[in-house]
Amino acid sequence: MAQVLIIDDDFEICETMESLITRLTHQCDAAHSLDEGLQKIRVNSYDVVFLDVRLPDGNGLDILPEIMGLSMPPEVIILTGKGDPDGAELAIKGGVWDYLLKPSSVREISLTLGRALKYREEKVGKAGEQPLDLANVVGTSPSIQASFKLMAEAARSDTNVLINGQTGTGKELFASTIHSNSKRKSGQFVVVDCAGLTESLVESTLFGHRKGAFTGAQSDRIGLIKVADGGTLFLDEVGEMPLSIQKAFLRVLQERTFRPVGDTREQTSNFRLIAATNRDLDEMVENGEFRSDLLFRIKTMRILLPPLSKRPVDIRPLAEFQVKRLCDQYGMAKKTFGSDFFAALESYEWPGNVRELFNILERAVISAGDEKTLYAMHLPRTLRIQVAKSQIKKMTGSEVLDETDADAVETSGVRKIGQEIFEDIFDQELPSLREFKGIAEKVYLGELIRQCGGELPKILEASKLSRSHFYSLLKKYDLSM
Fold first, then answer.
1. Under a CB-based contact definition with an 8 Å cutoff, are residues 276 and 237 in contact?
2. pTM here?
């Protein structure tokens, strides 16, 4: 008997589906809002969840990452009263089992539920297999946990995998982890950097060549495809592969045979393919920059790695992991963290993702030297200034302007709020957030008075402060007009 949950604000639909599911000898619960549904999911272990898209307190698709982040997430079947192809795409990418339009027939609901339960039964059976070695893969957020589950599926299969993600999100780490947990782990993990290959050398590098095949070919060379025989071939930045070689590589994927440059005999290679890219290959296909038939071949399974800015909860465990590894590498004693250290890291946007975080942490560890505690002051000054500017913007609604913006200062926003204080404040340990807010508030008031020429009506209009509040701030900071 399966455990099923229906999350739908239509009481009539809930009652109808409950009756159907109960007749199929399954246990069924109902919830009429996202909040109520999440509470039930956190407490009970459901096998299947029917989830409405449009609910009183939000969109059902918004809670998919949290559902999929559970240790054993239920199979999710999306319900909606309107045809929404974009919503269907988002739901499928989010890992749902199916997408049904309301009203669905009894037969359609029964078939879909039956298939989902059969699939789940097989999946639960696989869950008892030997767990993956994830020693170098860190993250607890729902989005990265969903990626981990796909990685586990990929490791237990031999299918082609495409890993999508921004630069620095860990695509090669994911690929190598899949390889090291697969049945091919005794073979080689061969990395091909497609972005670093010149068009004239791609064919020779991949397929190999015979002596004398071209100028400079002074001896036979084994291609990387042959080196990967029995192991895994990882095509990094596959979107950079020249069109001229894509057709030839497509044949290699289909037949697992190839001919070295200058050779008349074909060779074979039993490799497993994993490809990665930070580009949108579907868009490249539309623009004629990537072959559609090759894309179909390499994306049998697709794993999307979320950017670090979308999973800030992972910053702390990633930092703790990397700092420990760095201390071991440099022979340093274990380091602890000041309370301001993670506050600074979590306030940064991380455009370079995990790679940038690890580079920053290495600089901080080196800067700290033999000191036992890492503080925000050990982080690079450029990062601390960027974080402070972001905090100032949130507090005042205006950014700290750069020197190049001087000509625009008089007509836009607050004039370089506190620019002069940053030169001093970041060469020492940061003050508390309360003290920092006080500094920023005082600087803002001084600039406000200057820009408004000390005229009270203009000051009140620009700042949106009441007269009494404004005068109380003047007294607080001992300012005069």
1. yes
2. 0.67
